[in-house]
């Protein structure tokens, strides 16, 4: 059977080597140029005739199309090229930027390193799926798009961190759909433990600022009320406690079953700034806290701003609340044919029905939201991230997370089946 021949032609070694190769190319959000060049080179070398789409200087999406014969449904595979860590100063977010944050390596069939599972492994899986379809001589009715985009991870301009270098949370995917790269369906290739969802959280980034007075240490009165004293950092301490208490309640009351799973919108304090480290002989005159709040699909960012302002008012501390990035969450409409196709492919390759997706995955923000916002039914499906402690419990073990080459191969085969199914369905009337 031709389909079985196509699947058998996807080579596990080539897939693993490509995943690790791409995983070792530095590409923190805003600095994706080397990765874009590597993706472009692979697609060009393998005969896909890619194109670059400049989102910002040094930040190019890469797009290739396996053209169909016409009159068939089109499918867009999407993955992101940026990684969370690797830019100067990232150690303040990671605690320490370790090799597993910014590089990739192979130990037998284990593929280690965050860049592999976020998101080079799933990217390599659909690259090789498309290559197998084309080399196998199958002529699809509809077009198959291969897209690798910049700026999926949650960066946002704030304070002195301004300009296109800091654009994230879907800037690359949005550039695609705003500049003509559209399809009947989109499959966002990310790790999902071989489960599927068609909805994701929205989010709001808040900057919360307290003001104090810069009083020289010997002149600071003691005791002094924490809420009204001269130190902006001390004032912020009460707000931090209130926001943490609020977040504990928020995730429970906002949880909802949607998109094939359960969403549990979370909130976290991601950064705080106050004072001058090399000049600390004054109380702090200004302190800013940066708060990430996830939203259920359909929830208004403005309503969330009002709720956060209420929480802070109840502390008795004066503070300014300013959103500096908002992204709404979406649930796909018309996604059923794609989900059905994924379920059939999954059962053929994995050999058992698909499970239910874990809440942290549905509660993320991913590029899927961009496509669903644009009216392109989008879902996410991809491999399982394994952890070494599942085999030998050791909380202190290094290199805990990895993709197994067999899982990645199964993903690539599933992607090939999905593409051959969707892109051979009649497009029907416009």
Walk me through what this model shows.
α1 runs antiparallel to α13 (405-422), α2 packs across α13 (405-422) and α6 crosses α13 (405-422). The protein is α+β, with helices and mostly antiparallel strands and 430 residues long. The mean pLDDT is 93. It has two domains: 2-200 and 330-422, Zn peptidases (Aminopeptidase); 202-327, Alpha-Beta Plaits (2-Layer Sandwich), CATH 3.30.70.360. The longest helix is centred in the first third of the chain and has 22 residues, at 114-135. The strands form five sheets. It has a seven-stranded mixed β-sheet, sandwiched between helices. It has a four-stranded antiparallel β-sheet with strand order 4-5-19-18. A four-stranded antiparallel β-sheet has the order 13-14-10-15, covered by helices on one side. Helices cover 34% and strands 22% of the residues. The chain contains 13 helices and 19 strands.
List the helices and strands and how they pair.
Layout: H1 2-8, H2 12-23, H3 33-45, E1 51-56, E2 59-66, E3 75-80, H4 91-94, H5 99-102, E4 105-107, E5 110-112, H6 114-135, E6 144-149, H7 171-178, E7 185-188, E8 196-197, E9 199-200, E10 202-211, H8 232-253, E11 256-258, E12 261-263, E13 267-274, E14 286-295, H9 301-313, E15 320-327, E16 330-331, H10 336-350, H11 359-362, H12 368-373, E17 378-381, E18 386-387, E19 401-404, H13 405-422
Parallel strand pairs: 3-6, 3-7, 7-17
Antiparallel strand pairs: 1-2, 2-6, 4-5, 5-19, 8-17, 9-16, 10-14, 10-15, 11-12, 13-14, 18-19
Helix pairs in contact: 1-13, 2-6, 2-13, 6-13, 10-13
Descriptive keywords:
single chain, 7-stranded mixed β-sheet, 430 residues, Alpha-Beta Plaits, alpha+beta, Aminopeptidase, 2 domains
